[in-house]
């Protein structure tokens, strides 16, 4: 490498031979002394581990972080790009983005972390340890990429003194509290809450559930996609991880609640839980209704994730294995399940669906179905269409359908039960009937009034 003048001797630049050609390394120095000092630094850097990329010394931290996120953000979920991108711009680019990338070091990071915890600027609120760890993680990822691009030699985040954070204890509901929460839920949204409590599904998985993935005859539910709102457009997005794609079994009482939402004119692609205007359900809508219902109760602030925690704790209480719970909840590994619920666990291995029936016993789901079917019967009577709940369509004499007194076993769905509680054989379902609910007639064009008793 050498220094030479250019632009009529007014400026100086550093050049080097690369593959037999003279290549400019850096230029724009006002005098020869400045250029030679920079040349000396470049030679030292070369001996320390190779030259940095051209222009690295002029790159600002904020410029690089924005460039990195523009690429990295394409690899994550749309909702993550929107929320986390906002945090990155607010807490990294806006606060420390003016600092030179090349000289950004541990001291800058310590001062930045202090400001995140106790900001001097009134425009910023103090952040908790978990939020700080997340934001620091994004900065570290950006600086790792800067090292790979030869913009800096080392990532200063590797020596950061980070705040301690411990996961908050999950909220577990008792059977009585679960029944009370279901009771407090607005009638239209009761089926959603019942399903969350019985399945352990994430709210996005439940709202994205389509009828083609529901078998009311066997009680088997398959989670294949989740509903995501992308700038006002609903999209069936991939699940959180490949382990989230799973098939579970729910008991007949839950199938009967879901059957209230089924109609003969429905399509396989229709969502199970639809909004009151018949379209997909926006998460913000059901969340608002849920929060308003619990606002003045002891359950204020309760989130939908509490149903996952409650189901896991109640299954453990009933001696179900961590492996079966992991598969039902769709955790990526048994370690995730163990870290969350291992302290509650005595080891066994049995069927889960029967236990769910016991968990929901106090919620009186049969009463919910009875109220809704009575309302449907009244509507049909007004239309001159007599109808009896539980009537078996293919038999000469109609029997009253009811759930058996003894515990249900997986695989028994589709058995008809007489008024004396004894099995009277498998039902033959005709097309107007609700799949898997013997004798229950489907309703066309269901309205919110059909759920008014739910």
In words, what does this structure look like?
The chain contains 15 helices and ten strands. With 454 residues, it is an alpha+beta fold. It has three domains: 50 residues; 99 residues, Tyrosine recombinase, N-terminal domain (DNA polymerase, domain 1); 189 residues, Orthogonal Bundle (hpI Integrase, Chain A), CATH 1.10.443. The strands form four sheets. A three-stranded antiparallel sheet has the order 1-2-3, with helices on one face. The protein has a three-stranded antiparallel sheet with strand order 4-5-8, with no helix packed on it. A two-stranded antiparallel ribbon has the order 6-7. It is elongated, with a radius of gyration of 31 Å. The C terminus is likely disordered.
Explain the layout of strands and helices.
Blueprint: E1 2-6, E2 11-18, E3 21-29, H1 32-49, H2 61-72, H3 78-96, H4 106-117, H5 129-148, H6 175-184, H7 190-199, H8 203-207, E4 214-215, E5 220-223, E6 226-230, E7 233-237, E8 246-249, H9 252-259, H10 283-294, H11 305-317, H12 322-329, H13 334-341, H14 353-359, H15 365-382, E9 415-417, E10 423-426
Antiparallel strand pairs: 1-2, 2-3, 4-5, 5-8, 6-7, 9-10
